[in-house]
Design goal:
Blueprint: H1 20-33, H2 36-44, E1 52-53, H3 65-83, E2 93-94, H4 99-107, H5 112-115, H6 117-141, E3 152-153, H7 157-172, E4 176-186, E5 191-193, E6 198-216, E7 225-231, E8 242-245, E9 250-255, E10 262-266, H8 270-277, E11 283-289, E12 297-299, E13 306-311, E14 323-326, H9 332-340, H10 368-381, E15 385-398, E16 406-415, H11 421-427, E17 432-434, H12 437-448, E18 452-453, E19 455-456, E20 467-468, E21 474-475, H13 478-491, H14 495-498, H15 501-504, E22 520-521, E23 525-526, H16 528-532, H17 535-540, E24 550-556, H18 563-575, E25 580-586, E26 589-590, H19 607-613, H20 616-625, E27 632-633, H21 636-658, H22 665-668, H23 677-698, H24 702-731, H25 737-757, H26 762-769, H27 795-820, E28 830-836, H28 838-847, H29 851-855, E29 859-864, E30 873-875, E31 878-884, E32 888-889, E33 896-897, H30 911-920, H31 923-927
Parallel strand pairs: 1-24, 2-3, 7-10, 8-13, 17-25, 24-25, 26-27, 28-29
Antiparallel strand pairs: 4-5, 4-16, 6-7, 6-12, 6-15, 8-14, 9-10, 9-11, 12-13, 16-18, 19-23, 20-21, 20-22, 28-31, 30-31, 32-33
């Protein structure tokens, strides 16, 4: 009989390599076929609820790595909560209306104006469904567990109807109104935009210093004086209607020595402007306060129009001239100032960004950006351009088309914010934010935002349910809106575009403003942020398995101005409270160098490509390695490093499976109080880890989960417990107390770790679960998280073993020095003498454990510190002497023994080993050992 046959070498068919790209997909199909998600929901019915509401991604194209991070984060949370005592259904959603889909149809050669709104909407609907199907497949392939058979789409009739009822509730509170004031206007989208649809970029444009001749100086200024105005948008000069000055600034009338003209500028800017304009030794003729200039009139430089001098607090004297060109139709501050002075704004730019005939014959049909140079030339022609120079400043862009936007004062529908702003702000008191700064960020955004422009001049979206009477009166009646919502619930929102106004109104409806019974309907649709912002009612408040308000929302930090924002507004307006109890925000994904990802640069990471090469588990594990509350870096190199971490986890779990393969927990488990002392310590240590990991999961702190898990595997398990465990597992009697004690702990660890890592690595956890035959559930996801056991006060236990770890570190240093001195090779060749102080000896005694095995040496001698000779080295407070072990090496346990051959039947073995072999392998007596 071979000696190897007397060893308990661990065996398992669990493969060393995961082959994840192939096996993951097979496993996912098994989950879907066996309806694992649905079975988990049934198991949790009646338990406390945890409602994570999915903020809907836009249905356009395959997912990117940011999508993956978001959905995996949600899946980690939902899986953990579902296994930890909560009913946590997860309904995925999609944002399916809006301009990007219309743009894709246009790119495909479709013409909206040619086919008409009904056919256009049907094409958009088909496109959106295809995109949802594509993205759903991508999310499923990440291993996300969700109600994939019943997602919510903002184009679903039931959702649209709920959205219309939200609008109706807001109308009932008089929060919906029509107004004409400047809005962000995207000429590239031909639509108004909300603040959430704007992003800012630095641009360089030509600024102009313009002289405007006094026409009426109110007896204060001569008519031969020119006020020098400043603008960064020369194309708006044809719409100039006022010139703003600050009421408290001092202004000076000056006469430069090298010109006959008199000019007026802010006193504080005279020196810098004189240098800029080339004015030589200007003489100050008079000084005025800004308020003295109010209601003066200047002449428009090249149009037959009077320009009124007005007062405005927003005028600054750090740039420009202290006098600001004002076109009320093209700026919010300008508009409000013009409104104060009764100025009707001029709007001479059309929906596509082209100037109209109202701007003058020379400008008619000219694109606004091209009009800059034309306007500057006209100013030169009339000698009104004092100076032009480039200036770099932050400018708003359409976040979808990436084109600059303009301000246009055009009639739009708005949701009032100001009338219930404090109510919205107060609702945040009931919301918890992670990171905590999120609360202040959202608070400030609500505090500072203007009224919400909710109308869009597009076709693919939910219509504004507003009718107009014969005299133009807008009809916003909650009862009528509810009637329209019923129609939409039955037929979908395209019914609005298919039917005439009279067929959309309740039968027999009359209105005093339409004596002839004629009505028209609004053609604008709602802002898509109103769509997704109504999801708390369209999904959470209406689906029977869900609840409102939701427990948690988790999205990118850009959603403070987006979905977090719009959801809060509509929810407070309709229900009086925030739609969510907790808000978790995440940063953006950057490349390995910390640069923003861009397809044009070529630094993007496609999840599907990673999955093909490495598997979805590697992406999921990567998500757990980073602090998602801030921007995170990801590259193929980083993911390759993550795959190495995965390999370590997998191999550790494989070792645990192999060495518990012959352990039946129903028969072989050793009670906690009967465990060996080191096993008792490690059992308690794992119990502590369970508590720590669950706390980290509860805090949505995946990075801490990862660190705790990897530290336990690398430090506690691999570097300590499993290091000495092999000597016991392989050498001791198969059913002996030492081995079963250790296996009791290993089994608890392999089962517990499998469940604890399942939220992050579900494919691997389910694979491991198949190799745990005594676990009776069909799937690991149908089990529960391990509970933290009450093991009493372990303070002294942990303190003793913490002290031992210091002793072990000191011993390892001594062994390393002996190895370097060629005294020994491996620790098994060593005989170690520990010269202990009284306190150190008491600590070793308190362990109640043969620590020779733990130190991996063949022989260990304990002595009093006073017995140590002067040349015994001190290692971190411990006097330790290393010698080569005496005796001979056993071929079975590879340790040195002084009693080899004491059993005549087994002359190669120590007495202890001979006893194990005789009792457990009796055939060795007749066959002999070799």
């Amino acid at each position: 009989m071979k000696i190897k046959q007397t060893l308990n070498l661990g065996k398992t068919k669990f493969p060393m390599r995961g082959n994840l790209p192939q096996t993951e997909l097979q496993r996912e199909n098994i989950w879907f076929e066996n309806k694992v998600y649905e079975r988990r929901q049934k198991l949790n019915a009646g338990k406390p609820s945890f409602m994570l509401h999915d903020g809907p991604p836009y249905a356009n194209g395959n997912i990117h790595i940011g999508h993956a991070m978001n959905k995996i984060s949600k899946d980690i949370i939902v899986r953990y909560k579902s296994m930890n005592g909560y009913y946590a259904p997860y309904v995925p959603g999609w944002d399916t209306h809006g301009l990007p889909i219309e743009q894709q149809l246009t790119k495909a050669g479709k013409d909206r104006k040619k086919v008409g709104p009904v056919i256009w909407r049907k094409m958009a609907d088909e496109f959106a469904h295809k995109q949802v199907k594509k993205q759903m497949a991508d999310f499923k392939r990440l291993g996300v567990s969700a109600d994939w058979d019943h997602p919510y789409l903002t184009l679903q009739p039931s959702f649209e109807a709920a959205q219309l009822r939200v609008f109706g509730s807001m109308a009932k509170r008089d929060l919906i109104f029509r107004g004409k004031k400047p809005v962000f206007w995207s000429w590239s989208s031909e639509s108004a935009l909300a603040m959430a649809e704007i992003e800012y970029h630095d641009v360089t444009s030509e600024s102009a210093f313009i002289s405007e001749k006094i026409k009426d100086g109110k007896g204060v200024l001569d008519q031969d004086t020119y006020l020098v105005a400043w603008t960064t948008t020369p194309w708006t000069v044809p719409a100039s209607q006022a010139l703003a000055v600050h009421p408290d600034f001092k202004y000076v009338q000056v006469q430069p020595q090298n010109t006959t003209k008199k000019y007026l500028v802010a006193e504080s800017l005279l020196s810098s402007l004189s240098e800029k304009f080339g004015w030589e030794e200007p003489i100050i003729l008079a000084t005025f306060e800004g308020k003295d200039l109010e209601y003066m009139v200047t002449e428009h430089p090249y149009m037959d129009r009077d320009i009124l001098v007005v007062l405005a607090d927003y005028v600054t004297d750090d740039t420009g001239t202290g006098l600001v060109h004002t076109a009320p139709g093209f700026g919010e501050d300008d508009f409000m100032t013009g409104k104060r002075y009764g100025i009707t704004p001029i709007m001479n730019v059309d929906d596509r960004g082209y100037l109209t005939a109202e701007a003058g014959e020379d400008f008619d049909g000219v694109f606004y950006e091209d009009a800059n140079e034309l306007s500057l030339q006209k100013l030169r022609d009339v000698d009104a351009l004092v100076k032009s120079e480039p200036i770099t400043h932050s400018y708003p862009f359409d976040w979808r088309t990436k084109k600059p936007v303009i301000f246009r004062a055009v009639p739009q529908w708005f949701a009032s914010i100001d009338s219930f702003r404090q109510e919205i702000l107060d609702a945040l008191d009931d919301v918890t934010f992670k990171p905590e700064w999120g609360k202040k960020r959202l608070y400030n955004m609500i505090r500072d935002r203007g009224d919400w422009v909710i109308s869009r001049q597009r076709v693919w979206g939910v219509p504004l349910p507003i009718f107009y009477a014969e005299d133009g009166t807008a009809i916003i009646d909650p009862d009528i809106i509810d009637h329209v919502a019923d129609l939409v619930a039955e037929h979908g929102s395209t019914v609005w575009f298919e039917r005439e106004a009279k067929d959309l109104l309740p039968e027999g409806y009359t209105n005093e403003h339409s004596p002839n019974g004629e009505f028209t309907k609004e053609t604008d649709i709602m802002d898509v942020w109103f769509d997704s912002g109504s999801s708390h009612q369209g999904v959470m408040a209406t689906r029977p398995e869900l609840e409102f308000p939701e427990t948690l929302v988790l999205e990118g930090s850009d959603q403070y101005r987006g979905w977090f924002n719009s959801s809060l507004i509509t929810s407070v307006a309709v229900t009086g409270k925030a739609p969510y109890k907790e808000v978790v925000s995440q940063g953006f994904t950057l490349d390995g160098n910390g640069e923003k990802m861009s397809k044009s640069i070529g630094n993007t990471i496609e999840p599907n490509e990673v999955i093909k090469q490495m598997g979805a588990e590697i992406i999921r594990l990567w998500v757990s390695t980073v602090d998602t509350s801030a921007d995170v870096r990801v590259s193929m190199d980083i993911l390759s490093q993550t795959s190495e971490i995965y390999r370590k986890i997998r191999n550790t779990m494989r070792f645990l499976l192999a060495n518990t393969a012959d352990f039946n927990p129903n028969e072989d488990t050793v009670a906690y109080e009967d465990l060996t002392e080191v096993d008792k310590y490690f059992y308690a240590r794992f119990n502590q880890l369970i508590s720590e990991l669950k706390a980290a999961y509860d805090a949505y702190d995946f990075q801490s989960v990862h660190k705790l898990l990897i530290n336990f595997i690398n430090v506690d398990l691999s570097a300590f417990y499993l290091d000495f465990a092999k000597d016991i597992l392989y050498v001791e009697a198969p059913n002996g107390h030492l081995r079963r004690s250790l296996q009791t702990v290993l089994y608890k660890i392999v089962v517990g770790l499998d469940k604890l890592m399942l939220p992050i690595l579900p494919h691997t956890a389910e694979e491991i679960f198949e190799y745990l035959p005594y676990e009776t559930e069909d799937f690991a996801y149908l089990t529960n998280m391990p509970e933290v056991e009450d093991l009493g006060d372990n303070t002294e236990l942990f303190a003793n073993w913490s002290s031992f770890m210091k002793l072990r570190d000191a011993a390892n240093k001594a062994l390393e020095e002996a190895r370097n001195a060629k005294l020994i090779g491996k620790p098994a060749e060593a005989a170690l003498t520990l010269y202990l102080t009284k306190e150190q000896a008491q600590m070793v005694d308190a362990l109640g454990q043969d620590i020779r095995v733990l130190l991996l040496v063949s022989q260990l001698h304990l002595a009093d510190v006073t017995d140590a000779s002067a040349d015994v080295e001190n290692y971190d407070g411990y006097k330790i002497e290393v010698a080569h072990a005496v005796g001979e090496v056993s071929p079975r346990d590879r340790m040195y023994h002084t009693d080899l051959g004491s059993d005549k039947d087994f002359p190669m073995l120590s007495a202890h080993e001979a006893e194990i072999v005789r009792e457990n392998f009796p055939e060795a007596l007749t066959d002999g050992l070799e």
